[in-house]
DNA sequence: CTGCAAACTTGCAGTGACTGCAAAAAAGTC
DNA sequence: GACTTTTTTGCAGTCACTGCAAGTTTGCAG
């Protein structure tokens, strides 16, 4: 019964996973991240506490909705671009594509996460701390594309810059409703691309930049 | 009795603080970070567990030796440079100065921390997660110097890039004994300064870069 | 549809980080 | 030496997280 690629089991697993994720985000946004216990989250999703930890290694991970496939997916994307695309561009496009997908799939969740992040900005950093494994994958992909050894600083810096861009962008996005998250991330990556030695122009009071 | 600027009390506090820090790092390097309990650390430093938590908010903080004065100190340095120094250079120099000082004061600790980080790279990221407050200070200083509003992406990105540079540099430093940490951080910051769109040259097997 | 194996869920008991509180012990002051 | 302010400590409690050993559900073959 897996011609559709997804058995009953798989479907149920996906369901509990997203139920837990949504419960976590919803409750955290509603009454503050650390006023919510895993027990409450599990109850909300109608599973046992132990099951929560079968799906997520930590409360943090559930909040951010850590997707174990995101790393491999992005790495593949990076390598799939035609040869004349620079490593930076490949990485940049890959990140933006991922964000677009994510927002299309769960924009509502990100709106709630925004509230949580506004209360506790450190959560975003902490959540990214656990993705060292994925980052390693991305760094390898970048290294391959750039013709550099894995030990080189550049690939790791580029990937770190990516998550920094994302984190800063979320903060900025949270503060200004009128912006699209993808655009802000793109802008941040551009600053990294152009070099931080170059201070970007800023027109006081003149939003046509 | 505080003409020397430091009373008995202050001296003792400093002593317990560094004793706890050293105990944490030493034990963690010796037998692995999570095979060490706070109870053991406290015992090693001859204080109670409760006292440990009077000095450090978490085990992570003790491992990294989080210095609450580092943020203000660096911010001050950034603002103190003459006016013709660019924001990037001011930040860069400030970071390198801090690292130099730190290594001069506690090089042995950093050598041990290196071992711990090699076992668990995520600890470094997590440790930096709690410094959101300091980062805000630095970002403000950079913003002031760059003539940008605090809400602008640039200052935050520069500061994030700084910690990314530091984290990547430590990793690289841990893997190659022959390098000086300060140099690697400087190199990383230079890559950020020049722009990541530019892939650095790499001479296969020719260390004259 | 039955019986078996693999995957998933659950409860339970335990560890360890971390907190608030109130009392003991120093340290500084006069 | 009494008095105030800090610092240390013990204690009780909460909560995240883990390993283990059932119990339950799903997949599959006969």
TrEMBL record, chains A, B:
Gene3D superfamilies: Homeodomain-like, Tetracycline Repressor, domain 2. Coiled coil: none annotated. Keywords: DNA-binding, Transcription, Transcription regulation. Signal peptide: none annotated. Pfam families: TetR_C_14, TetR_N. GO terms for molecular function: DNA-binding transcription factor activity; transcription cis-regulatory region binding. It comes from the Bacteria. Residues 37-56 bind DNA. InterPro entries: DNA-bd_HTH_TetR-type_CS, Homeodomain-like_sf, HTH-type_TetR-like_transc_reg, HTH_TetR, MftR_C. Residues 14-74 form the HTH tetR-type domain. The keyword Protein transport does not apply. This is DNA-binding transcriptional regulator, AcrR family. It comes from Lentzea jiangxiensis. The lineage of its organism: Bacteria, Bacillati, Actinomycetota, Actinomycetes, Pseudonocardiales.
């Amino acid at each position: 019964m897996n011609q559709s690629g997804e058995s009953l089991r798989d479907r149920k697993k996906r369901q509990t996973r997203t139920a837990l994720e949504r419960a976590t985000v919803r409750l955290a946004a509603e009454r503050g991240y650390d006023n919510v216990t895993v027990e409450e989250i599990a109850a909300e999703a109608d599973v046992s506490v132990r099951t929560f930890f079968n799906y997520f290694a930590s409360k943090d991970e559930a909040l951010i909705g850590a997707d174990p496939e995101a790393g491999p997916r992005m790495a593949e994307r990076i390598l799939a671009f035609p040869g004349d695309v620079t490593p930076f561009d490949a990485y940049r496009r890959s990140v933006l594509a991922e964000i677009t997908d994510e927002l299309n799939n769960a924009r509502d969740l990100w709106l709630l996460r925004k509230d949580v992040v506004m209360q506790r900005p450190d959560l975003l950093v902490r959540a990214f701390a656990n993705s060292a494994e994925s980052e390693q994958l991305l760094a390898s992909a970048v290294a391959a594309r750039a013709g550099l050894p894995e030990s080189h600083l550049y690939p790791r810096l580029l990937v770190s810059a990516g998550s920094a861009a994302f984190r800063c962008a979320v903060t900025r996005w949270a503060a200004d409703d009128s912006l699209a998250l993808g655009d802000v991330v793109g802008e941040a990556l551009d600053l990294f691309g152009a070099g931080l030695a170059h201070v970007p122009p800023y027109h006081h009071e003149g939003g046509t930049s």
